[in-house]
Amino acid sequence: MTPRSPLLMAPALAWLTGLMVVPCALVLALAFFRRGIYGGVEYTFTLENFAQVFDPLYAGIFLNSARIAGTATLIAVVIGYAAAYAIAAAPRHRQPIYLFFAVLPFWSNYLIRTYAWIVLLNREGLITQLLRSIGYTGEPPSLLYTEGAVIAGLVYNYLPFVILACYAPLSRLNPELAEASRDLGGSAFTTFRRIVLPLTLPGIAAGAVFVFVLSIGNFVTPALLGGGRFQMIGNLVYDQFLTANDWPFGAALSMVLIAIMMLLLTLQAFASERASGRATAREEAA
Amino acid sequence: MKTLLAIDRVTKNFGRIAAVDDVSLAIRENEFFALLGPSGCGKTTLLRMLAGFETPSGGNILLDGKDISAVPPNRRPVNLMFQSYALFPHMSVRANIAYGLEMERLPTEKIRTRVDEIMATTQLSALADRKPEQLSGGQKQRVALARALVKRPRLLLLDEPLGALDKKLRGAMQMELKRLQHEVGITFVVVTHDQEEALVMADRMAVLKDGKLLQCDTPHEIYERPADRFVADFIGVMNFCEGRAAPDGVTARDGTMLRGRVPEGMAVDDRAVAAVRPERVTLFPAANIANRVAGTVEALAYHGLDLQLHIRTALTEKPFLVRITADAADRRPVRVGETVEIGWAAEDTRIFRN
Q1: How does it assemble (chain B) (predicted)?
Q2: Count of other CB atoms within 10 angstroms of residue A11
Q3: Which CATH class is domain A63-112+144-285?
Q4: C or N: which end of chain B has fewer Cβ atoms within 10 Å?
């Protein structure tokens, strides 16, 4: 690094400070004020907003969001890990092609992709038509505006993150380790459970935290695919700011959500730091 | 001695390439056997077939008379020490060594006893709780060895076991491996590209090239009576003089007659090469020495025990290599630029097809 490099960082730093840190600080400040009678903000200090967050009604929405995000994370990890495993096992020269296909959805807009799911799932959608074409005559299945649709949408959108996060440690894993386990008498399953899985856990953790954090705060997918019937915390925040006009409470909800996300990301960063610390120590010893 | 492992006309094809081509070998009980060859000769593929990671395209592998060609690696009484050691990085030394016994579902107490025993034999007891990343190269090598030995396999396969060690340590570990093999009484099959290593360690060795077995014998026999020019060149150092076969030797290109026993099936005037080891060549040969050539000393290299001379002769394009003992050099010193006569006995000449 040259002594001038902080200067090169300045624009990015200014951008982030101006457009992210400042607004976040404003929202944080907002959380400690009272809601005005006609919707405005009354500038008197209070902790009521935070107390309200833990009201069973809202805490329930938090828990529900966590459950939906957790389910989506679990499914994404299982599917994503399997895909990453298959890609890492493919011939070296083909792996970049498969990875390219895995991230291809990122090239189109998130909203458009989510709308595409509506086309797919609605009562007269592609799935219903497909069922009819193979002779199904009953009521069209109600797929859209269900919790399942929300979970499916979340899994679909965040799956590439899991694939990328799991692919990294899987592709770096020395294949001789699995062979050594087999050679020492381990079955294929034992080899996976005791050697491959523990050594690629950091990737799984990174992917899982990513999906969970992005899912729990998501409001587009539950709004479009859940039809507003299944409120997640993101929708609640949206409602407080734009419909209920209770900015202080919306701010308090945001802060609690951000706190949860930060906590998870920090834990994950710590865990991966420890794992990579081990890896560097290994390289130095070699 | 009883045959433990019989490799019977084994072939392994990768696509159109035969990595191992119709190889037959018999490895005896309690033998230290080396598979030697340049990289790409098929030795590692052969080893992987013995371990069970590759299935032969043709032929059979018999262990104690039973065909194991199709038995998966985790069901074979055969263990492999990997070239990269393949120690499990998330497990301690003790856990690495215990892993194979846990797979056998032995009682915990028994596992502990056997792991302790093998750690004592391989001088690892003090390192039991270390992780692989905290070990030196030599220590990792011992853990890998202990992890395989603790299973008490019928056959232990070692893939370039000393390849990752520095030269000095390698010498010490060669003797150590031989001592251990003797102590545990397990048949060792070592793959190596280092001919010196094979000569030092092996009871018998096989030389492979391009998937084919060239020669299988004791190190002494292979060194003294190589089967062909390739083996002669690959093992040790050799002087080669090309020419045409004569009834009792080879006529070199300059017309010099090099006497030696002509192999069976070689006709007069066939393209042939006469070979002689540098240590079989003497300076100022006695009157009864059959082969003698004049030359000029071009270079001199002192090696402690012996002296290596490069002598320019009319016989070959490359200088002739001669090794004389320090003792002989003391009695009759030679200088660079000096004209000397060199010679060797007819029975020290090896003649190959060229």
Answers
A1: The complex is composed of two ATP-binding proteins (PotA), two transmembrane proteins (PotB and PotC) and a solute-binding protein (PotD).
A2: 9
A3: mainly alpha
A4: N
